[in-house]
Amino acid sequence: MSEYDKKILETFSVLDMLKLEKTFAVAFSGGKDSTLLSILVYEWLRERGIKGKKIVFVHNDTQSELDILEDYARYFLN
What are the residues whose beta carbons fall under 8 Å from the beta carbon of 31, sequence distance 6 or more? Predict the structure, then answer.
């Protein structure tokens, strides 16, 4: 198993602790880390066959980010 696959399984095992929660939030800045986490949450839900969750993405335009990152964040979240 590759290191990449190990990290995904590790992330999924952390997310598995949320299985009983109906709602949870993901902070989303538009950067590479929060984008990857958002994709992994989606993949976790899909792979585990989990339905009925309310995922709230929290994004705040601090007006200190590059315009291109803010544009990407808004595009990704829509």
Answer: 69
Question: Which has the closest alpha carbon to 24: 3, 11, 38?
Answer: 38
pLDDT tens readout for residues 54-76: 999 888 777 777 788 788 888 88
Q: Where are the beta strands (DSSP E) in the chain?
A: 23-27, 54-58
| One-letter identity of residue 14 | V
Rounded to two decimals, the pTM is 0.78
Which residues have CB under 8 Å from 47's CB, separation 6+? 12
**Cα–Cα distance for residue pair 31/69, rounded to 1 Å:** 7
Element housing 72 (H / E): helix 67-77
